[in-house]
Amino acid sequence: MHRKLAAGLLAALIAAAPAAAQRLLTIGAQTPPSALDPHYHNTQNNNQIARMVFEPLIELDTRAEFQPRLARSLRMLDDLTWEVKLNTDARFHDGTPFAAEDIAFTFARVPTVPNSPALFTPAVRSIAAVEVVDRETVLLRTREPNPLMRFDMAGPVILSQRIHGPNPQTAEFNSGKLMVGTGPYRFVDWRMGERLELARNEAWYGPAEPWDRVVYRFIPQPGARTAALLAGEVDLIDYVPIQDIPRLEQDRRFALFRIDSITFVYLAPDAMRETSPFVTDRQGRPLPANPLADRRVREAISLAIPRQQIAERLYSGMASPADQFAAPAAEHRLEGLGPLPFDPARARALLAEAGYPQGFRLTIHGPNGFFPSDDNLLQALAQALARVGIETQVQALPPANLFTRATNRDFSIFMTYFSSYLTLNPLRQVAMTRNPELGHGPFNRQRYSNPAVDGPLAQALTSMDEARRRALTQEAARALLDDKGLIPVINLKNAWAGRRDRVVYEPSPPNLTEPRLARPAPGG
């Protein structure tokens, strides 16, 4: 009897050995993707998932350096021609070779994805033709010079014409049918809003990833995310709740991984319409004109915001006051600026000057579970505006709902963020007059339009002379700042927390939570 029992136990141990040897990384992530279609929504939480399964031509690493992926190299032959040398070792997960024709197929699809809250169109806006020279070489012909070509090519991931053609639908990615890429991980399973599972791609051309399986658990509630880490249910969490940082710092079981980000939070006021849906007088009656269309009112809103107090008290130093519509590390930002001024008295005077001595009522919309303390920040902004006479209500929405409604112009003013290593990129994406054909303003959900911004931006986007491009970018940035067409609030810092015995994480300035940036802890 004992021999049979011992033999049974030995057999069970042998059978379990391969599974036990597998390395599983479980991530408690704040924000789920709105879709698995890699071209549906150009946002950080979608992109970090897409790039595990699919790959762009090149990518930016955590040091803002370009690294080859499906392109071994990208070089400019002249102002209108770029040569791409392809990675011929790359294969899609079903064994289909990556082909030169896949680039043209992908770039043609990018501007056409239906119902997208924000397309990747700016990344392919300048490309007039994709010419296949041979199996290893493609020429990108542009309509005009494009100084941002390398940044653009780090954007949309590449699909296969053979696998995904001729007309891939977002629903086919969401079902898993078309989740076939060239990336380091294969798709296994997705439960929308709850869980995503990936498995290591053993045939990937790059260095082997250390994780056999990766599970994302989407936990929007900050406290629940920390609780899952404390209970050992997850190995790593992102968007560490501000209030939990001291506790985790003092607990030797956990490690914090922090970095200054390239993310800044801003308000987008409805500055262009004659009337606006969530603005009334103090009695709740419609106003004859939209106060947000008056620059003085927008400036009053900016002056009412105590950015330094918000950064210190609400964010405990995990944020800094914004000074402009660009991250602190962004290339070609305006120089020598201090934080935007906080002057409630001047704000009240401007409201009176604009014809609103008693203020008005306003609803501010924003996300709940998109970045740390976003719902608390909304409340802080509402309180600040109330102190200068703008009676403000708050509506915090799930991110997917927020951006769908913002794209439909449902709001009078809403809060969100942008991440970029450049100053020019958020200007063209958010502030430039919306033009789908040219790829300008895909995130310009309030349809802001200012010739003083558009003029220099149009020139900067085609200038290969860096000094001139810097001057033009700064001219546009100054015009936007003066007009308060978009109102910067704070710059965020990023933090992850992990089990010290399980994982070491390389923090990412764009706030990407990816298994490629995680390594097993020594001895783990």
TrEMBL record:
- Pfam families, from UniProt? SBP_bac_5
- Family the entry assigns: Belongs to the bacterial solute-binding protein 5 family.
UniProt-recorded name of the protein: ABC transporter substrate-binding protein
Give start-end of the signal peptide.
1-21
**Region: Disordered, residue numbers:** 505-524
Kindly state which keywords UniProt assigns to this record, in alphabetical order.
Answer: Signal, Transport
Q: Where is the Solute-binding protein family domain?
A: 65-420
Q: Give the subcellular location.
A: Periplasm
